[in-house]
Write a structure and sequence with these properties.
2 domains; seven-stranded antiparallel β-sheet; six-stranded antiparallel β-sheet; 18 helices; 28% helix; globular
C-alpha cells in the first residue's frame, strides 16, 4: 500500500528489501544495542520496526510504524521501557496487506503453555497457505496475515517438552527460506533455514552474544564477528554460554546471490565475501563481457556505485558522478496536489550536466525490473546532453519472481521476461544494453555455476531454478509471500 499522497514510487522498480533481524543476550544495554543494530540494518526494511526485551521474568515490547530513529530515540521514551538482558528486533518491509496495521509488526510475542515466547523472522514460507488453512480449521486464531505467526502457532501446538524441541518440531513442518531470532525461557535462539538462503551472522561483545542479518550491525554495536550461522543450524544462548545444534538434514548452501548484487550493505561481509569487493568484481566482469567505446562510466546511485567502479577500472574508462542523489527524500514525500507531483526519479536523482554533456556515457546499475526507472535515467542523461547512453547491468536479466522473502513483481511485470535484450534497450531508449551473464556472475564471486556445485547460490530470479518446492503455487504468491517479512 502506497501513501495516498506519495509521489509515484519508483522503488517498486527494484527488488525490495527482505527485512532485518537482530538479537543480543547478556547485556544490560540490550535495549540500546538492539536499536543501534536495527539502525544499521535500516536498508533492509523501512516501513516498521519493533523490539522485544526480556529481563528474566517479563517481556517488554514496543513496535511502531516508520524508521528506527522515529521510534527509538532519546525523546520517545520507548527505549527506557525496554528493560532486560536479552533483546530481539525486526525491521519490516511488507509486500502486501495493510502496511499500517500495528498487528503486522514484529517481533511477535505470545504467552504460551511453557511461558513467554517472542519471534522475529526474515524470509518466506512457501507452504504458508496450506499451514494457515490447517491451523484455522483446527481452531487457531490469527491476529496478522504474516507467515511468522504460523511459526508461533506451530510452536504453541507442539507436544515436545523443551522450547528448543518445540521450535525444531515447528520448523520441520515449514518449507521456505528463513533466518529467525527468538526469546524464550531466558534464552536467545537463532536459526537459519537448511539451504541458508537468508543470512544470519554471529558476533560477540564483552561476553554478550549477538545475532544479526549482516555484519554491519555487529560493527555499530562494537561486536566482533565470529562466523556465519550455518545453513540448518540452531544456536542457543543462555547463562551457560552458546551451544549449536544441527537438527535438520544437511544440504548444499543456496545463499541468495542478490545479497551481493543489491540487498546487503556494501560494508557487510557475508559468507566470507566482502559485499563491496564482490560488487566491484561483478562490475569488472561485466566490463570484460560487454565493453563499449565510451568516455565516462556513471553509476546509478547508490547501489550501482561499486559495480561502476569495477567496470571503470577493468575497462580503463573514466569514472564520474554524473548523477547526484538527494538522500533526504523518502517514500512518503508529500506534494500539494496530484497534478503538482514531481517524478519521483527526479526527486531522488539529478543529472550532473558538466560531467555528462557531449560524452558517450556508460550507465551502470544493479538490476532492471520493470524498466520504468531505467528509462527515466537514460532520458535524464540525454536531457543533460549525453552524446550516447549505454546501459550495463550488474546482474543477469530478472525473469522470475522470488518466493523466498524478496518482493518482486509478478512475472508478467518483469520486462526481461517479456522482451529480448534488444527490445528492452529500445524500450528504455538506450544506445546499447547488456547484462552480466549468469556464468559471469558466478565467476565474479569466485564460483563456477554447475548443477552439482557447492556452494551454489539461489539464483531463481534469473534462472527459474527454485531450490525449494513452491507448494503453495504461483497463484498464492501474494498471499504467502506478501507478509512473511
Amino acid at each position: 500500500m502506497i501513501h495516498p499522497f506519495a509521489a509515484p514510487d519508483d522503488d517498486n522498480d527494484k527488488l525490495q528489501e527482505e527485512c532485518a533481524v537482530f538479537g543480543i543476550y547478556g547485556s544490560d544495554e540490550a535495549n540500546v544495542l538492539t536499536a543501534l543494530g536495527l539502525h544499521a540494518l535500516q536498508h533492509r526494511g523501512q516501513e516498521a520496526c519493533g523490539i522485544v526485551t526480556h529481563d528474566g521474568q517479563h517481556f517488554h515490547a514496543h513496535r511502531g510504524l516508520g524508521h528506527v530513529g522515529e521510534n527509538f530515540n532519546a525523546n520517545s521514551g520507548h527505549i527506557d521501557t525496554l528493560v532486560g538482558h536479552i533483546g530481539i528486533g525486526h525491521n519490516r518491509y511488507s509486500t502486501s496487506g495493510n502496511t499500517n496495521d500495528i498487528l503486522e509488526i514484529q517481533p511477535f510475542s505470545s504467552r504460551l503453555a511453557f511461558g513467554g515466547f517472542a519471534l522475529a523472522h526474515n524470509g518466506n514460507l512457501t507452504n504458508a497457505a496450506r499451514l494457515r488453512s490447517s491451523l484455522i480449521d483446527t481452531g487457531s486464531l490469527f491476529q496478522s496475515s504474516s507467515d511468522t505467526e504460523i511459526i508461533v502457532h506451530l510452536v504453541a501446538r507442539s507436544h515436545q517438552e523443551s522450547v528448543t524441541d518445540r521450535l525444531i518440531d515447528a520448523l520441520r513442518q515449514i518449507e521456505g527460506a528463513y533466518s529467525l531470532v527468538c526469546v524464550a525461557d531466558d534464552m536467545l535462539i537463532g536459526v537459519r533455514d537448511p539451504l541458508g538462503i537468508r543470512p544470519l551472522v554471529l558476533g560477540e561483545r564483552d561476553g554478550s552474544f549477538v545475532l544479526a542479518s549482516e555484519t554491519c550491525a555487529l560493527d555499530i554495536v562494537g561486536a566482533k564477528f565470529i562466523r556465519d550461522i550455518e545453513p540448518g543450524e540452531m544456536v542457543v544462548v543462555d547463562q551457560d554460554g552458546l551451544s549449536s545444534l544441527h537438527p535438520f538434514q544437511s544440504k548444499p548452501s543456496r545463499f541468495c546471490v542478490f545479497e551481493y548484487i543489491y540487498f546487503a550493505r556494501p560494508d557487510s561481509v557475508l559468507e566470507g565475501r566482502g559485499v563491496y569487493h564482490a560488487r566491484k568484481a561483478i562490475g569488472a566482469e561485466l566490463a570484460r563481457e560487454s565493453s563499449v567505446e565510451a568516455d565516462i562510466v556513471i553509476p546509478v546511485p547508490d547501489s550501482g556505485v561499486p559495480a561502476a567502479l569495477g567496470f571503470a577500472e577493468a575497462s580503463g574508462v573514466q569514472f564520474e558522478l554524473g548523477i547526484i542523489r538527494n538522500h533526504y527524500i523518502g517514500r512518503t514525500f508529500i506534494q500539494p496536489t496530484q497534478e503538482g507531483r514531481t517524478d519521483s526519479v527526479k526527486l531522488k536523482h539529478n543529472a550532473n550536466p558538466e560531467a555528462v554533456h557531449g560524452k558517450r556515457v556508460v550507465l551502470v546499475d544493479d538490476s532492471i525490473v520493470r524498466g520504468t526507472t531505467s528509462r527515466k535515467i537514460v532520458n535524464m542523461m540525454r536531457a543533460a546532453g549525453a552524446a550516447e547512453v549505454h546501459m550495463r547491468i550488474a546482474s543477469p536479466p530478472t525473469k522470475s519472481p522470488c518466493f523466498y522473502g524478496v518482493d518482486t513483481p509478478d512475472q508478467d511485470q518483469l520486462i526481461a521476461a517479456k522482451m529480448t535484450i534488444n527490445q528492452v534497450a529500445n524500450d528504455i531508449d538506450a544506445d546499447s544494453l547488456a547484462f552480466i551473464s549468469i556464468d559471469g556472475l558466478y565467476r565474479a564471486l569466485g564460483e563456477v555455476r554447475r548443477e552439482t556445485a557447492s556452494p551454489q547460490f539461489c539464483d531463481a530470479c534469473f534462472t527459474g531454478d527454485y531450490p525449494i518446492a513452491l507448494t503453495t503455487g504461483l497463484s498464492d504468491k501474494r498471499v504467502s509471500h506478501g507478509s512473511s517479512v
